[in-house]
Amino acid sequence: MCSMRRLPLLLVSFYLAAEQLPDAPDFKAGGWTPLLNDKSLSGWTGREGKPHTWSVATGPVMTNGSNGRTADLLTTRKFGDVELYLEFMIPKKSNSGVYLQGLYEVQILDSFGVASPGVQDCGAIYERWINGKGVGGSPPKRNAGRAPGEWQSFLIRFRAPRFDAGGKKIENARFLRVVHNGVVVQENVEVDGPTRASMDYPEAPEGPLMIQGDHGPVSLRNIYVRPLKLH
Predict the structure, then answer these.
(1) The three-state (H, E, C) secondary structure of the chain, written as one string
(2) How many CB atoms lie within 10 A of CB 79?
(3) Do the Cβ atoms of 189 and 119 come closer than 8 Å?
(4) What are the beta bridge partners of residue 63?
(5) 153 touches 181 (CB < 8 A)
(6) What is the CATH number of the domain that holds 31?
(7) For the chain, how many structural domains are there in total?
(8) Structural contact between residues 64 and 70, judged by C-beta atoms closer than 8 angstroms
(9) Is the pLDDT of residue 108 over 90?
(10) What is the CA radius of gyration of the chain?
(11) Is the dihedral of CA 58, 59, 60, 62 positive or negative?
């Protein structure tokens, strides 16, 4: 029998996809909240209110349509300092990303086998886009990517930017840690502004979670968050 982790992407939702990877946290403890259910996309909306072809099925599993070319999807809920866990699956050469506060991207990409990953590979903090050029970004410490068609995971600890009483930013956003498939790929990475293809609004103490939906097929499951109380 074919392993479920290698099934074609759009067939995954018809199987018992509620299983989770062994590096997942204990969601029954510590204040974790699920962001997916298998009945609807309640709590999510298309970017800028645009129509989209995202859907959910038993598992629950969320998939961005038949061709992977649809609007980005955002949570209606906003987050500040937060810990995020999610599992994703992409086919060969596909591309997506998860944006904290809709502004700061951790890249999702088929980077399987890449010897020296860069700022556009899976697990990277994506580069900014300034005057038509890519600027900055943080490549993963090592390539932890699995083969296309296999479930993978991110565990992200994020510290939101800080602002004074007048609304002036006094500290940049920071990825305290990104763990990709159980491997630490980012630690204490400061992000001095929104990364490429982010939402077009100012940095703020809180913002939604955004999943990129227009760069190729992606499926996600076991999306959980818990607020952090950081100094």
Answers:
(1) CCCHHHCCHHHHHHCCCCCCCCCCCCCCCCCCEECCCCCCCCCEEEHHHCCCCCEEECCCEEECCCCCCCCCEEEEEEECCEEEEEEEECCCCCEEEEEECCCEEEEEECCCCCCCCCCCCCCCECCEEECCEEECCECCCCCCCCCCCCCEEEEEEEECCEECCCCCEEECEEEEEEEECCEEEEEEEEECCCCCCCCCCCCCCCEEEEECCCCCCCEEEEEEEEECCCC
(2) 22
(3) no
(4) 55, 219
(5) yes
(6) 2.60.120.560
(7) 1
(8) yes
(9) yes
(10) 17
(11) negative
Cα 193 from Cα 128, distance rounded (Å): 7
Number of Cβ within a 10 Å radius of residue 54: 20
pLDDT, one tens digit per residue, over 213-224 is 999 999 999 999
Contact 70, 53 (CB under 8 A): yes
CB 62 within 8 A of CB 41: yes
> Is pLDDT of 16 > 60?
no
Range of the domain at 147: 4-227
Higher pLDDT, 10 or 32: 32
Task: Show Cβ contacts of residue 117 under 8 Å, excluding neighbours closer than 6 positions.
Answer: 111, 123, 124, 139, 140, 142, 143, 145
What distance in Å separates the CA atoms of residue 49 and residue 72, rounded to the nearest whole number? 10
pLDDT tens figures, 122-179: 999 999 999 999 999 999 999 999 999 999 999 999 999 999 999 999 999 999 999 9
Residue 79: beta bridge partners? Answer: 207
